[in-house]
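Bug #77: duplicate submission created two jobs. Keeping one. Sequence:
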Amino acid sequence: MTVPNATKRWGTKKITPVLSATSKGKSMELNRRNFIKLLVGGAVGIQVTPLPWKFTDDVAIWTQNWPWVPVPPVGAFETVTSVCRLCPGGCGIAVRKVDDRAVKIEGRTDYPVNPGGICPVGMGGLQLLYDEDMRFTRPMKRVGPRGAGQFKDISWEEAIGMLTSRLSKLRSQGRPEALAAVDGFMRGSTMSLLIERFLKAFGSPNYLRIPDAEETYWMANMLMTGREGPLAADIENADFVLSFGCGLLEGWQGAGRIINAWSILRERALKGKARVVQVESRASNTASKADRWIAVKPGTEGALALGISHVLIKEGLYDKTFVNEHSFGFDDWTSPDGKEHVGFKTVVLKEYSPAQVAGITGLKPAQIVSLAIDFAKAKAPVALFGKGKGTLNGSLYETMSVMALNALTGNLNRPGGLLVCDPLPLDGLPDFEQDAVAMTGTEKPRLDGAGTAHFPFSRSLINNFADTIAASAASPVDTLLVFSSNPAFTLPDGGMFKKALKNIPFIVSFSPFRDETSAMADLILPDHTYLEKTDDVVWPAGLQFPLYGLSRPVVEPLYDTRHSGEIVLETARKLGESVGKAFPWEGYEDVLKTRVKGLFRSGSGLVNYDGSKPVWEILKARGPVKPDYKDFDAFWGSLKANGLWYLPRYPVSKGEYLFKTPTGKFEFYSTRIEQAVSLSEKNSSREKVLNTMGVDARGDRVFMPHFEKSLARAGASGFPLQLVPYEMVNLASSWVPNPPFLKKTLFDNELLKDVSFAEINPKTAGEYHLKEGQMISLESPSGKVKVRVTLFEGAMPGMVYLPQGFGHSAYDEFLKGKGSNPNHIIHPSKDPVSGFPVWWNTPVRIIKA
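Kept job's structure:
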């Protein structure tokens, strides 16, 4: 990792740039581990350039002697293309095969999302396919104590019989709401629709999703623009990218596309035509390689956005035409009932001056002013939001604050700006009739409180669900289905979810992997891996043009596993009655075809891409896009073969905003939040309502972007430090396990002798008399982990930084017992209004070993 410029300091310590390959300021020996790390890009940022993958593969083979490393025999070579589904980025991949064995994964050059790019985890995907110790190879049932991971092989007939027998009993007892499901498939995917449909047809309201940044984006977008489609950023055409914590080089929204966009920005920056500014407390790879690093206290990013807005408004540097014609709540106003309201302008000018924001963020007022002036002068600026890779949710008011900043520039739905889009023109699944049992069950209250007066806009709050189950003497959930997720490992305060799992009588895991949540299961119905099945990606995260991706099997299934979609369909058929009638399809591919008929009927879009010109260069073109297919059969055949339908146009024309809020405008003042609070006031006082929603602000500020002090909690009694987890591009931190090869890309001050490291500023370490490599325990109100200390000038004083992705207690010998999982000691508070878990402000203390 490179270090920040010499002018960047913490306290009196200068961070000195080093010309040779380094590890956080220390000389790095060019041994086997570091040689491989240099090649795959984890050390010095080679990930932003095309990688010498063939050389990397050869080195990996040369340096490894693990017995299970695939060494294919001589045979016929073949390349099969598909779409990666390891993250929401939806990159195109090309898999090289020797006879029937896959031997290499590359990024596709003939795919518009990631022109040839691929992240380290994607490159290592073959290990997720071939590591039998990491995978479930057939259906199994638990035979030992829960959590011990002791299972017995059973047939598929017995396995599905066990599931349907249990579910049939719940419906016959009139308790369909005692079924719950956790869905980790990509938002909007056909699998997600199928799982949600199954819960509704069965009669349960308890459909849950894993929280992520996309859910925060959806909520802020819905409240401020009225749109519920994707939010996208036209990064490739921007000339000033202001990132509020986004790990652009750590895998944010899919590394394949963003790394290519970074290369474009860097090339233009050398000509003085583009700039990247990173706002975050730690000198990450992104911060270190940006043109400017703005180090703010964790959780205060929204306050900085409002401080920049203050300068733009005060100096008259905002887009007055957009604000006057297309926005609501900017100026003071009077409602129809005669009540006077303060506007966003008044609040920002009064409460977020550079001096006031400097006191919140730790910056100097001059830094805020200069950043605001630079941002305002850009022709195509865009402000990005979302911490790390985006695998964990953000804060609603913070996201709204950054959206408001984008609106002030007027660069919404314009080249280089923030794009507010309609969903893809996919067909929905047909309506169905619930029977009396299902209707009664779905009318029961959700166990997580989502959609209630407490959290009126939330669709799922799995942390609340875990709290409810863990606190119940008798679990209100009898059967839990877990799809494509590992909440026992990935959720903040995962220990609480494990406690909840112990209370649930029957757990079914559909995971292909032997993960921590599956170890707690009673029944295993293993899915194929992403390289063995067909599934879809509905608009890759953050992409600035409409695209539907479709993966396909690159190899035949290696083991006795089944597509989860097929299992859902078969289970519904066996349950029969109204549940079976809700699933009329013979197979999962038929469900996919039902949805994509909407794309075909749209009369636009392409299913072939030659790669002759990047899509981002031709988005400004006008007029319709003539389809390159004649009928549905040709459309479906090309879609399956090429893995995409896309529309090389901006989602909306320049100047066409089409806001769908109650006012028909971009709302600096959210009338929907106001309506939700007013509705709740019928049964309680406003003070109690706001306390229940967790909002500190009062008055009209509740309905506008503002800074909530609770989000920057900087310590508690007995816990003087603050834990901030961070993510790395070469370390998987979601439910997907890390390919073992990537362990060899880690430095010895990231993982050493199976112990991970906590980054601490030398000044803070000095206060506790800590030395490099010293063993300590890091304790929060939720738990304790053992780590080593690494001194890092790029860490903010008073903070402790732990990498996410370590600390597995499951999978195989290469992942189990390696490092500590920060999620186990995160003590999350609830984000105001949304109720999402806040994961970046846990108070901690150091205990010397």
